[in-house]
Amino acid sequence: MDKHTRKVMFSKSDNVWLTPLDLFDDLQKTFDLQLDPCAEKAHPLPGVASISVDENGLNRDWDSNTYINPPYSAIQLWVEKAIYQASKWRNSNHYVLLLPSRTGRPWFRLLLRYANAICFIEKRLKFSNSTNSAPFDSLIAVVGKRLSYPQVQVLEKYGAVI
Question: Does any domain span residue 122?
Fold first, then answer.
């Protein structure tokens, strides 16, 4: 791994990776996503209510199907919040998280216990704010409401699902 790749993967300077819009479109249609509690103010996702990072979505309730692509410096907090919200709303909503695939992290172990599905994305994503593919692998995790077979099939388009 070259110096630049290592720096990007393990630094907090590249904290925000904007969701690829084609991926978001698929996820929004599949899970009827209605809220983005960690939106980038200058780049809100289409068709969902947004709470900007500055407004701190961690301090709000997520009472609808929610999409979470958190700042990568605070993934643990956002995973814990998604799990809490799923429990609070008695698993009546989907909480869909787009995260780097870092299987040794404590937040990943939480997802293994609480997620209904984890999709390991086969190809490295080209995030909307990047000219190249990401220097890391990604995953999609779904917490809360159980998935239907058609929802699992959509995730399978992107990679292996457990």
Answer: yes
**CA distances (Å), origin 53, targets 15, 30, 89, 102, 157:** 12, 25, 23, 22, 30
Distance, CA of 52 to CA of 123 (rounded, Å): 28
pLDDT, tens digit (0-9, with 9 covering 90-100), for 57-107: 999 999 999 999 999 999 999 999 999 999 999 999 999 999 999 999 999
C-beta separation of 119 from 159 below 8 A = yes
Q: How far is CA 73 from CA 12, 49, 100, in A?
A: 6, 23, 11
Residue linked to tokens 């989907």: 94
Tell whether 4 is covered by a domain.
no
Q: Is residue 5 part of a domain?
A: no
115 - beta bridge partners? 143
Instruction: Count the domains in the chain.
Output: 1
